Amino acid sequence: MPNCTALPRCTALIVAAGRGSRFGGPLPKQYALLNGHPLLRHTLLAFQGIPGITAQRVVIAPGDDSHYAQAADGLGLASPVPGGISRQQSVLHGLEALAADPPDLVAIHDAARPFVRPAEIEACLRMAATPGIDGAVLGIPLADTLKRVDPEGAVTETVPRRDLWRTQTPQVFRFDAILAAHRTAASLGATDATALTDDAAVAERAGLKVVMVQGSEDNRKITTMDDLHAPTTETRTAFGFDVHGFADGTAVMLGGIAIPHSRKLAGHSDADVALHALTDAVLGTIGAGDIGKHFPPSDPQWRGASSDRFLRHAVDLVTARRGRIVHLDLTIVCEAPKVGPHREAMVQSIARITGIAEDRVSVKATTTEGLGFTGRREGIAAQAVATVELPKD
Q1: Which of 117, 141, 197, 364 is the most interior residue, by most CB within 10 Å?
Q2: Prior bond of 118 cis (ω within 30°)
């Protein structure tokens, strides 16, 4: 694997010592076949050729040597490291095996996540290499509503989801820091040690600064046999369009953010023309009508409402159909305000609202060269295209 001088040396430590009791089947899930090859092999190949990844080492369960040899055949990897009785112990065994010739960084990754993207791995490496940061963890902002329930199953509280993330792997750390943190964790009592459910938790307990890096739903973890045989899907695309005129005000809502301006957009809700167009596009992919059907302007409860609620509702309807948002493309048509300086913030906002990765959101802007109502600066138009994947009936 090529070295990259732009990044510190990083070893990918692949944890493949689990038994996968929920998976079923004759083999542990990391050795089950996916498209004719062991799942572990797909994971190893995902890290091949990544700038900064200079080596790979795999932690396996004792007795799995023949399965490992088949999965790693021809990849030129060092001998596997025997794992322990828990994931945390297996990671420590792997780290100790690297300590004789320590890398600058270590990327700890689950063998059962074969679909991680190269760009996601690289983003974690860059973040972990940033001065003042000890680690970077791939994850996804939580989009679902959370409920706390009592032992009888009754709902007792709605938990705010703001600032909550679902963690994934890889989790990349400065090697010396995470090795010391794992050694300290291993010295804890059994109850305290097992409460640390991932390497980020080990790092947090040691006081290390760990930063989240946005990943994608594609980087799913294989848990059951069904995950290897996902249902046949179909791709759908739909178009959305909306227009709002200007009124007296000091800012316009576009893409979920307030942009200072000499006017505002007029509408029953907050008149976010961008999110309205996106909402109609998402609704269109499942034949669910338009925004007016779900949030009629005649209903006073939607007066002044934040339009992120509308878009989130449309996404929830897709999710209820076991679908997922693949891509959102938005074009804003106006003479003013200038969209360019706010494009990145809008991408981040839309990604957060819809629960997808930022690289699945496109925001563009154009003018009509002074023609029409947008050219006369009477309002703003937006058009959107949504692409989703849905399981076939």
Answers
A1: 141
A2: no
- Claim to verify: residue 355 and residue 333 sit in the same structural domain: yes
Residue with tokens 């021809």: 74
- Does the pLDDT at position 3 exceed 70? no
Whether 167 and 257 map to the same domain: the answer is no
Distance CA(280)–CA(288), nearest Å, equals 9
Are the CB atoms for 137 and 171 separated by under 8 Å? Answer: yes
Question: Are 174 and 274 in the same domain?
Answer: no
Q: From residue 40, how far is each of 16, 82, 197 by CA, in Å?
A: 8, 16, 22
Contacts of 85 (CB under 8 A, 6+ apart): none
Residues near 362 by Cβ (< 8 Å), separated by ≥ 6?
327, 328, 329, 330, 347
pLDDT per residue over 170-194, tens digit each?
Answer: 999 999 999 999 999 998 865 555 5
Residue 341 structural domain: 233-391
**50 and 195, same domain (yes or no):** yes
Domain C-terminal end among 198, 228, 258: 228
Full 3-state SS string of 250-274: CEEEECCEEEECCEEECCCCCCCHH
Which residue in 176, 172, 178, 179 sits closest to 130, CA to CA?
172
pTM of the model: 0.61
Residue 4 confidence (pLDDT): 38
Hunting for tokens 């998976």 — which residue is that? 23
The two three-digit tokens of residue 196, written as one number: 């640390």
Residue 146 domain-assigned (yes or no): yes
The reply to whether 195 and 239 lie within a common domain is: no
Residues 292 and 190 in one domain: no
